[in-house]
Amino acid sequence: MSRKAFNEHAGFAIVAPITSTVRGMKLEVILPDELSTNGAVLIHQMKSLDFANRQVELIEKASESMVEKVTELATVIIQ
């Protein structure tokens, strides 16, 4: 969820987990069918992650519209 510049500077990334169990909550974003990953992004479970020490790998990238939906909901929580 966080920008690349922040991630590189801090060595951390702000992330939200993805679950395969879709509950229909207002704070989750359903992943589109064209992705190989199925489920929903859980915005209410955002966290900071030390991606260097956790050896995080990019599996696939979300579309710009997906990123906008996630960011919009995250902003509702933070502001």
Topology:
Blueprint: H1 4-10, E1 13-15, E2 18-19, E3 28-30, E4 40-42, E5 47-49, H2 64-78
Antiparallel strand pairs: 1-5, 2-4, 3-4
Radius of gyration: 13 Å
User: At CATH's second level, what is the architecture?
Assistant: Roll
Strand neighbour order, sheet with most strands: 2-4-3
Summed up, the helix count is 2
Overall shape? globular
Q: Tell me what portion of residues adopts beta-strand conformation.
A: 15-25%
- Overall number of structural domains: 1
Biggest sheet overview:
3 strands, antiparallel
Spatial gap, N to C terminus? 16 Å
H-E order = HEEEEEH
Number-wise, the strands total: 5
Kindly report the average pLDDT value.
91
Helix percent band:
25-40%
Low-confidence stretches: none
CATH-derived topology: SH3 type barrels
Give the C-level CATH assignment: Mainly Beta
Structural class: alpha+beta
What does this structure look like?
The structure is a single chain. The protein is built from two helices and five strands; from the N terminus they run αβββββα. The chain has helices at residues 4-10, 64-78, and strands spanning 13-15, 18-19, 28-30, 40-42, 47-49. The strands form two sheets. It has a three-stranded antiparallel beta sheet, with helices on one face. A two-stranded antiparallel ribbon has the order 1-5. It starts with a helix and ends with a helix. The protein has 79 residues and is an alpha+beta fold.
